[in-house]
Each structure stands twice: as structure tokens, then as C-alpha cells.
Amino acid sequence: MKFVAKTLYGLEKVLAEELISLGASEVQAVNRAVLFNGDKELLYRVNYCARTALSVLMPVADFRIRSKDDLYNGGAKVEWERFMDADNTFSIVPVINSPHFVHTGYAGLILKDAIADYFRKRTGRRPSVDTSDPGILINLHISNDLVTISIDSSVVPLFKRGYRQVQTAAPLNEVLAAGILLLSGWKASATLTDPMCGSGTIPIEAGLMACKIPPGKFRQFFGFQRWKDFDKELFENIKRESDSQIVSSPVKIFGSDISDQAIKQTEANVSRSGLSDVVSLEVSDFKNFNTVDKQGFVFLNPPYGQRLQPDEIDGLYGMIGTTLKHNFPGTTAWLITSNKESLKNVGLKPKEKHILFNGALECILLKYEMYQGTKKPEKD
Fold first, then answer.
1. Cβ neighbours of residue 18 closer than 8 Å, sequence gap 6 or more
2. Structural domains counted in the chain
């Protein structure tokens, strides 16, 4: 079977590597997604184990259209009884960029009618639409005249791991945090410090990786569990096999924040994820923080400036550069922000740059190598 794993911009290659490690074949990275082949077992495994996938779609039809009637006819040709029956509820998510449809919702209504009529003709009954809690979630993608109809095997986006009890005002997306860690090359053999941890997304995702805890372990639901052909025994076997790989972390992970409330929230999330022995937390101002490991990794997701005055945010970024230089010699530091202007105040030359998105915000992820002493060669 062919599948599409959606991800965030900039993480396509990272996800492709994950999928290959999970057993996928014919892997192809495209914009914000990765195409791959596999079977039902792999579909379940990717949902449960992939750290950088947002959702996994299973295409059920591809065809071209010249009118709205072509969309109806193409949708009515899908063998919908393979996936659902007239007692199921369903919902359609349309993503449309086509001259044939001025209104996105109209294309969704046409496909809805095609599915409802499909069952009415065969059973005399029509499945109902439920947009709040659908039994089957259908993705309708139209680009110019090319239509792709897929079923969403995740439904609840995979970044919603299930461990987050409480969160700060602007938490980092879990998939983005995992992607940053994988892009950085961090391994569980190196100490990790997040001195502006907010509600703890980076330390927790690092802890899950270090302990080999599947990111789906805390979720209560995946969309494929409502599919007509759901194999409960197969899924339980995958969960048991994956969970049997869990180990104790060989390294400590540190998180701190200037906000006492943020640390309390992080403590709740760390406890929920079973990482209280792995992640150490404290209330601390970054400028007073010193690294515990001169060879470790530092990850920073500072405020982007939406809630601060320009002089405040510039001063903050200047402090970040000074503190990294004086308090974190020998470390590898990674910083993500959407504030490219204030970034100039860091005053350090990045070794790498990556463009990523945090929600709708285009961000830049930078790598700084904090050399001890000077890089300049000694004079004879």
C-alpha cells in the first residue's frame, strides 16, 4: 500500500530517515510530507513510533477532473465499504487549489454527497457527517485538476502525544522539538540542557528518545482503530514489541526557566511522561546558569518578541550570546527563533542554519559551536 506521512517544513529528510528505519520502502521526501510504501503493520507502527510525523494518510483514489461532476463521479467509484459502512460517521477535510472550485467547502460537499449516495444506492441508508468526532476522517486534496482522496489514519495529530498536562502560552510543537533534536545529531550519550524550557517540550522529547519510549505510548486513540479492517491483535503486538525496547536513560537531561510557573508545568508533564528520573528541573535565570557538561548540547527556544518591547527582546538576545560565550564553553548550542532582527544581537557566528516552521511562523534554527578559549592559531 502507498502512504503519505505529513510533517513540518524542513523536517522532510528527518522523517524519511525515520520511516526507513521503521521498515518503509519507496521512500520519497516531498514538500511537508514523505511518500512511502508498506503494509498495515507498518501503518500502525509509524503512527505509534514516528517522532516527526504529524499524520499518516492512506490514499484511496487519484484522478483528474475537468468539472465538479468529475469529482462526484470519481468519489463514487471508490470502494468505500472496504473502510466504513452506513453506520459510520465521517468528515471531510478539503485542501483545494484549483480553478474548478472557488470555495473550498463546495468541493467537500460534492465528495460528501458522492459517499452518501454510494451507500444509499447499496444499502438504502446514508452515513452521517460528524465534524467533531468522526469515525472516518477523509482528506480531499485538489491541485489544479489532480484529485487525491485519502483516509487519515491518525485523525488526532501525532504531535499531540498525550503526556502534556499543562502548557505555557506558546508551547513548542512536539514534532518540531523532536525534529530539532534529530537535526542536531544529539545522542543520549551527551548531556542536554534547555535553559529556557517553558513547559518542557524539548527535555521531554529528548527523554523519550533517550529511553526509547515510543511517542504514541501515551495516546488513547489513533484513527485506524475505527477502520472497518482494524486488527486489534496486530496493533497490540506492535505496542508490546515497541514498549519492550524501553531502557533507562544513560544521561541526564536538564531543564530550567526563569518562571516558577513554567517549571511547575514542566514537572507535571515530565511526571506524566514517566521521566522524573531522567529530566532534572530548576527555576533559574539563564544569565546565571552554568553548564554541567563542557561537551554537552544546549537547546534554546527564546521568546520571539510578540509580547516584549523591541529594546527588551534585543537585550535578551544579546544576553543569550554573552552567556553562551562565557558560561557554556565547549558545548554545541542550538537556537530557534522567528526574530531574525534580534538574532543579530547574539553576536555569534553560526556553523549551520535550517529553515523550519513553528506553527505559521517561519523560524531559523542555528548551530553555534562554543569553543573553549580561542580558535585563532598561536603565534610562533
1. 50, 51, 52, 53, 182
2. 2
